[in-house]
Known about the structure:
This protein is mostly beta strands. It is built from 1 helix and 14 strands, in the order αββββββββββββββ.
Amino acid sequence: MFKTKLIITMIIALALPMAANASEDSLRYNVKRNGSSIGTHEVSFERKGDLLEVEIETDIEVKVAFITFYRFDHKAEEQWKNGQLVAYHSKTNDNGTDKFLNLSSVQGNYIVAGSAGRYVTTSLAIPGSLWHQTTHKQDLLMNTLDGHNMKVEIADAGMDMVMVSGENVEAHHYIMRGELQRELWYVNGNLVHVKFLGEDGSTIEYELQ
């Protein structure tokens, strides 16, 4: 199952600049806090000619003594055409704080309007949704919750073993520092595992199912 998902996703990612018939697939991650499941993160791909639509949904709930201590709900849609991001929309409930982002492309300009403000640019950082196969090459990522740009430094940590779909798999490990701090593992350019520290110091991991 793990290998089949990776092959399908790799085909979709590599085919971004090419026309193709509509196709779809989804990747589902189990979100863990200190080893215990607290939710899911799902990335769905649908191909429509030269347009790739990516839907992202994150549903996290941390309970302490049966009382919800933290909740995070995030829904986003990315639209890519010929390998370029042309639209992005997201709504987020970050533990009671509402955030949003709307991005559109108009005559070579990108209009970015989010809860962090509004700006127009001709050069756009890719979203920090981490699935994109060129994420590890970036030094600037667009915050997917509110639209502000985040400076990052990403170091190549070499090959490493990581848990994916219940198996230990060899993956390429990258360490991201700066305004977004994440450890990322990719197989053939596909995101299979994420690890970072939560605000309370807990260890958060996204494990591909």
